[in-house]
Protein backbone atom coordinates (compact mmCIF):
# COMPACT_ATOMS: atom_id res chain seq x y z
CA UNK A 1 0.00 0.00 0.00
CA UNK A 2 1.32 3.40 -0.98
CA UNK A 3 0.81 6.26 1.43
CA UNK A 4 0.52 9.64 -0.20
CA UNK A 5 1.29 12.68 1.90
CA UNK A 6 -0.58 15.82 0.95
CA UNK A 7 1.15 19.11 1.78
CA UNK A 8 -0.99 22.20 2.07
CA UNK A 9 0.27 25.12 0.06
CA UNK A 10 -1.59 27.68 2.25
CA UNK A 11 0.82 29.56 4.49
CA UNK A 12 0.31 29.28 8.24
CA UNK A 13 -1.27 32.36 9.75
CA UNK A 14 1.08 34.16 12.07
CA UNK A 15 -0.99 37.17 13.13
CA UNK A 16 -3.84 39.55 12.45
CA UNK A 17 -4.05 42.09 9.68
CA UNK A 18 -4.30 45.83 10.27
CA UNK A 19 -7.91 45.75 9.07
CA UNK A 20 -8.84 43.20 11.74
CA UNK A 21 -7.28 45.35 14.45
CA UNK A 22 -9.21 48.36 13.19
CA UNK A 23 -12.44 46.34 13.08
CA UNK A 24 -11.91 45.33 16.69
CA UNK A 25 -11.27 48.94 17.73
CA UNK A 26 -14.35 50.23 15.91
CA UNK A 27 -16.52 47.50 17.42
CA UNK A 28 -15.47 48.22 21.01
CA UNK A 29 -15.73 52.01 20.59
CA UNK A 30 -19.12 51.67 18.87
CA UNK A 31 -20.45 49.44 21.65
CA UNK A 32 -19.28 51.89 24.32
CA UNK A 33 -20.91 54.75 22.42
CA UNK A 34 -24.23 52.90 22.14
CA UNK A 35 -24.12 52.07 25.84
CA UNK A 36 -23.52 55.73 26.60
CA UNK A 37 -26.46 56.82 24.43
CA UNK A 38 -28.80 54.27 25.99
CA UNK A 39 -27.80 55.20 29.54
CA UNK A 40 -28.99 58.78 29.63
CA UNK A 41 -28.83 58.89 33.41
CA UNK A 42 -25.07 58.33 33.14
CA UNK A 43 -24.76 61.43 30.98
CA UNK A 44 -26.91 63.49 33.36
CA UNK A 45 -25.07 62.31 36.47
CA UNK A 46 -21.73 63.11 34.84
CA UNK A 47 -22.83 66.73 34.44
CA UNK A 48 -24.69 67.17 37.73
CA UNK A 49 -21.58 66.91 39.92
CA UNK A 50 -19.50 69.62 38.20
CA UNK A 51 -22.52 71.86 37.70
CA UNK A 52 -23.33 71.72 41.41
CA UNK A 53 -19.79 72.88 42.17
CA UNK A 54 -19.99 75.55 39.49
CA UNK A 55 -23.41 77.00 40.32
CA UNK A 56 -23.63 76.51 44.09
CA UNK A 57 -20.27 76.01 45.78
CA UNK A 58 -18.44 78.53 43.60
CA UNK A 59 -20.95 81.21 44.53
CA UNK A 60 -20.22 80.64 48.22
CA UNK A 61 -16.44 80.36 47.88
CA UNK A 62 -16.03 83.32 45.53
CA UNK A 63 -15.47 85.81 48.34
CA UNK A 64 -13.43 83.44 50.48
CA UNK A 65 -10.95 82.13 47.92
CA UNK A 66 -9.59 85.09 46.00
CA UNK A 67 -7.47 84.07 43.02
CA UNK A 68 -4.29 85.98 42.24
CA UNK A 69 -2.70 86.30 38.82
CA UNK A 70 -1.12 82.89 38.27
CA UNK A 71 -0.19 81.12 35.03
CA UNK A 72 -1.81 80.59 32.59
CA UNK A 73 -4.04 83.54 33.52
CA UNK A 74 -2.83 87.04 32.71
CA UNK A 75 -5.36 88.90 34.82
CA UNK A 76 -7.50 88.40 37.89
CA UNK A 77 -10.22 85.82 37.36
CA UNK A 78 -13.38 84.74 39.08
CA UNK A 79 -13.36 81.60 41.17
CA UNK A 80 -15.73 79.93 38.69
CA UNK A 81 -13.19 80.42 35.91
CA UNK A 82 -10.42 78.91 38.03
CA UNK A 83 -12.27 75.73 38.98
CA UNK A 84 -13.61 75.04 35.47
CA UNK A 85 -10.55 72.97 34.38
CA UNK A 86 -10.68 71.03 37.64
CA UNK A 87 -14.34 70.23 37.05
CA UNK A 88 -13.51 69.10 33.52
CA UNK A 89 -10.91 66.72 34.93
CA UNK A 90 -13.41 65.60 37.57
CA UNK A 91 -15.77 64.48 34.82
CA UNK A 92 -12.99 62.36 33.36
CA UNK A 93 -12.05 60.97 36.78
CA UNK A 94 -15.59 59.78 37.50
CA UNK A 95 -16.01 58.49 33.96
CA UNK A 96 -12.78 56.50 34.22
CA UNK A 97 -14.00 54.86 37.41
CA UNK A 98 -17.44 54.16 35.96
CA UNK A 99 -15.87 52.55 32.89
CA UNK A 100 -13.79 50.40 35.21
CA UNK A 101 -16.95 49.43 37.07
CA UNK A 102 -18.38 48.16 33.79
CA UNK A 103 -15.13 46.22 33.29
CA UNK A 104 -15.79 44.33 36.52
CA UNK A 105 -19.28 43.44 35.30
CA UNK A 106 -18.26 42.64 31.72
CA UNK A 107 -15.38 40.50 32.89
CA UNK A 108 -17.75 38.25 34.80
CA UNK A 109 -20.82 38.07 32.56
CA UNK A 110 -20.52 40.56 29.70
CA UNK A 111 -18.77 40.81 26.37
CA UNK A 112 -15.31 41.41 27.87
CA UNK A 113 -15.46 37.84 29.21
CA UNK A 114 -15.45 36.70 25.57
CA UNK A 115 -12.99 39.31 24.33
CA UNK A 116 -10.39 38.53 26.99
CA UNK A 117 -10.14 34.93 25.76
CA UNK A 118 -10.10 35.88 22.07
CA UNK A 119 -6.93 35.40 19.98
CA UNK A 120 -6.35 39.16 19.82
CA UNK A 121 -3.62 40.48 22.15
CA UNK A 122 -5.08 41.22 25.54
CA UNK A 123 -3.17 44.48 25.81
CA UNK A 124 -4.72 45.72 22.56
CA UNK A 125 -8.23 44.81 23.77
CA UNK A 126 -7.70 46.73 27.00
CA UNK A 127 -6.36 49.71 25.06
CA UNK A 128 -9.45 49.70 22.82
CA UNK A 129 -11.67 49.65 25.89
CA UNK A 130 -9.64 52.49 27.40
CA UNK A 131 -9.84 54.54 24.20
CA UNK A 132 -13.61 54.06 24.03
CA UNK A 133 -14.06 55.26 27.61
CA UNK A 134 -11.85 58.27 26.93
CA UNK A 135 -13.91 59.22 23.87
CA UNK A 136 -17.07 59.20 26.00
CA UNK A 137 -15.44 61.35 28.69
CA UNK A 138 -14.31 63.92 26.11
CA UNK A 139 -17.88 64.24 24.83
CA UNK A 140 -19.08 64.79 28.40
CA UNK A 141 -16.46 67.48 28.99
CA UNK A 142 -17.46 69.40 25.86
CA UNK A 143 -21.10 69.22 26.92
CA UNK A 144 -20.04 70.76 30.23
CA UNK A 145 -18.13 73.50 28.41
CA UNK A 146 -21.24 74.37 26.41
CA UNK A 147 -23.24 74.84 29.63
CA UNK A 148 -20.37 76.72 31.30
CA UNK A 149 -20.31 79.14 28.36
CA UNK A 150 -23.73 80.44 29.46
CA UNK A 151 -22.15 81.01 32.91
CA UNK A 152 -19.58 83.42 31.41
CA UNK A 153 -16.77 80.87 31.44
CA UNK A 154 -15.39 81.68 28.02
CA UNK A 155 -11.82 80.65 27.26
CA UNK A 156 -10.24 81.81 23.98
CA UNK A 157 -12.01 80.28 20.96
CA UNK A 158 -8.87 78.34 19.99
CA UNK A 159 -8.81 76.92 23.50
CA UNK A 160 -11.68 74.59 22.65
CA UNK A 161 -9.36 72.94 20.11
CA UNK A 162 -6.03 73.14 21.92
CA UNK A 163 -7.55 71.49 24.99
CA UNK A 164 -8.55 68.36 23.05
CA UNK A 165 -5.13 66.61 23.16
CA UNK A 166 -4.88 67.36 26.88
CA UNK A 167 -8.33 65.89 27.48
CA UNK A 168 -7.42 62.75 25.55
CA UNK A 169 -4.18 62.24 27.48
CA UNK A 170 -5.71 62.95 30.88
CA UNK A 171 -8.67 60.70 30.04
CA UNK A 172 -6.31 57.89 29.11
CA UNK A 173 -4.40 58.29 32.38
CA UNK A 174 -7.48 58.31 34.60
CA UNK A 175 -9.10 55.49 32.64
CA UNK A 176 -5.92 53.39 32.88
CA UNK A 177 -5.83 54.00 36.63
CA UNK A 178 -9.42 52.82 36.97
CA UNK A 179 -8.65 49.78 34.81
CA UNK A 180 -5.68 48.92 37.02
CA UNK A 181 -7.86 49.17 40.12
CA UNK A 182 -10.62 47.07 38.55
CA UNK A 183 -8.16 44.23 37.89
CA UNK A 184 -8.04 43.46 41.60
CA UNK A 185 -11.79 43.75 42.27
CA UNK A 186 -13.67 40.45 42.31
CA UNK A 187 -17.17 41.67 43.21
CA UNK A 188 -19.15 44.72 42.17
CA UNK A 189 -20.09 45.42 45.79
CA UNK A 190 -16.47 46.09 46.69
CA UNK A 191 -15.84 48.50 43.85
CA UNK A 192 -17.91 51.38 45.25
CA UNK A 193 -15.85 51.49 48.43
CA UNK A 194 -12.59 51.37 46.54
CA UNK A 195 -13.78 54.21 44.28
CA UNK A 196 -14.38 56.45 47.29
CA UNK A 197 -10.87 55.81 48.57
CA UNK A 198 -9.46 56.82 45.18
CA UNK A 199 -11.73 59.54 43.78
CA UNK A 200 -12.17 61.86 46.72
CA UNK A 201 -8.54 61.96 47.94
CA UNK A 202 -7.33 62.50 44.36
CA UNK A 203 -9.86 65.26 43.71
CA UNK A 204 -9.60 67.23 46.94
CA UNK A 205 -5.81 66.86 47.32
CA UNK A 206 -5.19 68.64 44.02
CA UNK A 207 -5.29 72.05 42.42
CA UNK A 208 -8.80 71.49 41.08
CA UNK A 209 -10.56 73.66 43.67
CA UNK A 210 -7.82 75.95 44.99
CA UNK A 211 -4.32 77.02 43.88
CA UNK A 212 -1.39 75.22 45.46
CA UNK A 213 0.11 78.42 46.85
CA UNK A 214 -2.96 78.85 49.03
CA UNK A 215 -2.74 75.22 50.17
CA UNK A 216 0.91 75.78 51.08
CA UNK A 217 -0.05 78.73 53.27
CA UNK A 218 -2.17 76.42 55.40
CA UNK A 219 -0.20 73.17 55.25
CA UNK A 220 3.17 72.72 53.48
CA UNK A 221 3.04 68.92 53.69
CA UNK A 222 -0.43 68.89 52.13
CA UNK A 223 0.84 71.13 49.33
CA UNK A 224 3.66 68.65 48.69
CA UNK A 225 1.10 65.84 48.59
CA UNK A 226 -0.95 67.80 46.07
CA UNK A 227 2.11 68.38 43.91
CA UNK A 228 2.80 64.63 43.74
CA UNK A 229 -0.81 63.84 42.92
CA UNK A 230 -1.14 62.80 39.24
CA UNK A 231 -4.62 64.31 39.16
CA UNK A 232 -3.13 67.73 39.93
CA UNK A 233 -1.00 67.50 36.82
CA UNK A 234 -3.99 66.35 34.76
CA UNK A 235 -5.86 69.46 35.93
CA UNK A 236 -2.93 71.76 35.17
CA UNK A 237 -2.41 70.18 31.76
CA UNK A 238 -6.05 70.88 30.90
CA UNK A 239 -5.91 74.35 32.45
CA UNK A 240 -2.91 75.47 30.38
CA UNK A 241 -4.17 73.83 27.19
CA UNK A 242 -7.51 75.58 27.55
CA UNK A 243 -5.63 78.87 27.14
CA UNK A 244 -3.36 77.68 24.34
CA UNK A 245 -0.33 77.03 26.56
CA UNK A 246 1.62 73.92 27.52
CA UNK A 247 2.77 72.87 30.97
CA UNK A 248 5.76 70.65 30.23
CA UNK A 249 6.03 69.24 33.75
CA UNK A 250 2.39 68.21 33.80
CA UNK A 251 2.71 66.75 30.32
CA UNK A 252 5.63 64.57 31.41
CA UNK A 253 3.88 63.43 34.61
CA UNK A 254 0.58 62.62 32.92
CA UNK A 255 2.28 60.85 30.03
CA UNK A 256 4.49 58.82 32.36
CA UNK A 257 1.61 57.87 34.67
CA UNK A 258 -0.48 56.85 31.67
CA UNK A 259 2.22 54.44 30.53
CA UNK A 260 2.76 53.04 34.03
CA UNK A 261 -0.95 52.55 34.75
CA UNK A 262 -1.59 50.97 31.35
CA UNK A 263 1.33 48.56 31.61
CA UNK A 264 0.23 47.67 35.13
CA UNK A 265 -3.34 46.99 33.94
CA UNK A 266 -2.12 44.79 31.08
CA UNK A 267 0.07 42.76 33.43
CA UNK A 268 -2.71 42.56 36.03
CA UNK A 269 -5.20 41.26 33.46
CA UNK A 270 -2.74 38.58 32.34
CA UNK A 271 -3.98 35.34 33.97
CA UNK A 272 -0.46 33.92 34.11
CA UNK A 273 0.88 36.67 36.38
CA UNK A 274 -1.75 39.26 37.23
CA UNK A 275 -4.68 39.53 39.60
CA UNK A 276 -7.12 37.92 37.12
CA UNK A 277 -6.47 34.22 37.64
CA UNK A 278 -7.75 31.36 35.57
CA UNK A 279 -10.62 29.40 36.99
CA UNK A 280 -10.98 25.62 37.13
CA UNK A 281 -12.13 25.52 33.51
CA UNK A 282 -9.15 27.53 32.34
CA UNK A 283 -11.14 30.71 31.64
CA UNK A 284 -9.96 34.11 32.70
TrEMBL record:
Localization terms from the record: Cell inner membrane; Membrane
UniProtKB keywords: Cell membrane, Membrane, Transmembrane, Transmembrane helix, Transport
Topology within the bilayer: Multi-pass membrane protein
Protein name: Transport permease protein
Pfam family, one: ABC2_membrane
Main location: membrane
Transmembrane segments: 51-70, 82-105, 126-151, 157-181, 193-213, 248-269
Cited NCBIfam families: phenyl_ABC_PedC
Amino acid sequence: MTVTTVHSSAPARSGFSAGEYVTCLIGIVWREGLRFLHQRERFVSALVRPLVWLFIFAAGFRQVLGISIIPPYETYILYEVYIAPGLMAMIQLFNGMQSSLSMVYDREMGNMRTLLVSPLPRGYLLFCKLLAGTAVSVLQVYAFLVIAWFWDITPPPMGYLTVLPALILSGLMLGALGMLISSGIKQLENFAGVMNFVIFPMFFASSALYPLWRVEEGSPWLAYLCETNPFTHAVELVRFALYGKLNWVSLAVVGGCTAVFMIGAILAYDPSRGFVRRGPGGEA
